[in-house]
Amino acid sequence: MKTELQVSGIRCGGCELLVKEALEEVVGVREAEVSHLKGAVVVDYDPETVNIASLAAVIEEQGFKVNE
């Protein structure tokens, strides 16, 4: 399943890489695409293993804000 999250504070390629690597370490995440230009994160994940709240928490742990 894919979901797109709007995220504030991602300003450069380094921020993109930080978020991408953190998400891809989560069990159940297949792939994460991060765009600082769009302020968005697209995550391909297994909903039986991980939920959106957990994904948002991982992003926020990196210092960014997930917008509702």
What are its keywords?
single chain, alpha+beta, Alpha-Beta Plaits
Walk me through this protein's architecture.
The structure is a single chain. The chain has 68 residues and is an alpha+beta fold. It has a single domain, classed as Alpha-Beta Plaits (2-Layer Sandwich). It is built from two helices and four strands. It has a four-stranded antiparallel sheet. A hairpin with a 4-residue loop joins strand 2 (29-35) and strand 3 (40-45). The longest helix has 12 residues, at 13-24.
CATH class: Alpha Beta
Structural category is: alpha+beta
Tally the beta strands. 4
Q: Main sheet?
A: 4 strands, antiparallel
Order of helices and strands: EHEEHE
**What is CATH's topology name?**
Alpha-Beta Plaits
| Overall mean pLDDT | 97
Strand order of the largest sheet: 2-3-1-4
Residue share in helices? 25-40%
- Give me the Rg, rounded: 11 Å
Continuous helix count: 2
CATH architecture: 2-Layer Sandwich
Number of domains: 1
Q: How large is the share of residues in beta strands?
A: 25-35%
Shape: globular
List strands and helices in order, with pairings.
Layout lengths: L1 E7 L4 H12 L4 E7 L4 E6 L6 H10 L3 E3 L1
Antiparallel strand pairs: 1-3, 1-4, 2-3
Task: Quickly describe the structure.
The chain is an alpha+beta fold and 68 residues long.
